[in-house]
Amino acid sequence: MVVMKMKFPFQKRVKLAQGLWLLSWFATVAGAVTFALGCVLKTELLRRAEVMDDTGIHIVPNTLMIAGLASLGINYFASRICQDSLDAGRFPRWKNFLKPYFAVSCFFTVLMLLTVIMSYAMKGSLESSLKVGLRNGIRFYKDTDTPGRCFQKQNIDRLQMEFQCCGNSDFKDWFEVQWISNRYLDFSSKEVKDRIKSNVDGRYLVDGVPFSCCNPSSPRPCIQYQLTNNSAHYNYEYQTEELNIHLSGCRQALVNYYMGLMNTIGAGVLSVFLLQGSVLVSLRFLQTSMEAVAGKENIEIETEGYLLEQGVKETFMQYVDPVLKFFLLKNGVEEGDPAATTSAAPA
User: What's the whole-model pTM score?
Assistant: First the structure.
């Protein structure tokens, strides 16, 4: 059953070819934009790689860049085909090229749509990656003399100041780790000795946070030590007073930032997907309407164009069957090799 059959007089075919040529160049620019968006997202993820435990989230920008580059090639050839469709003598040379072209184009167009879906669906993976990465970053904050971790303190401080956050889930995460290096502790001090002895693991834990957690908008000078000790500060109540440090955790701040970025990119790529789909549908109508002109002396006759010559399922299987047969044949040959070798051995 032919899907979406339409009649195309000569003038309508010419207008379709001209309009599609212009549309394909718009889609080429959109493909370049898609590649650029993938690069932007990749760069932003790499900037925070030290607080991410898993690089699986990079599949989104990587796929975007691949789909963007593929879109450049797809739409370049689409513009060439449109030009040649105005000349009935030059268009037939594309006949053998168009079937694989549409297969490849549909694959990368669907890949673009999958990227949009992934950009919305990766929140859980992103959050779990940041949870582990930030926890390790806070744990290694004090290791400024350890190779491979010497910039961890600087990275965490810059992160907390830029995103106005503190800790992983909240500021109390700093209470659970020793974030002050031993080289800056006076082990002859009774207070230091008592704190270390009171901890099972022998760590120096304090109810304080690094300076980067301080909120510069607060009118009160920053209180970053003894946050839970009301008597240590004048006119201060830990439970009721709004602390002058950032209260939100960096994990949620980063998740909000990256999801906002990916949602914006996703909306843009969805627009590119619709534009790319319009190019392929229009090109298909142009191809089928021009095939009826091949070999005719009068090229200005009215022709019929359609989207699919058969149903969706039949068309899909028409493309899939050769691929399946290829792999089945290849597997059969590989399985037959040992037998062939064995039979050839006595000779």
Answer: 0.78
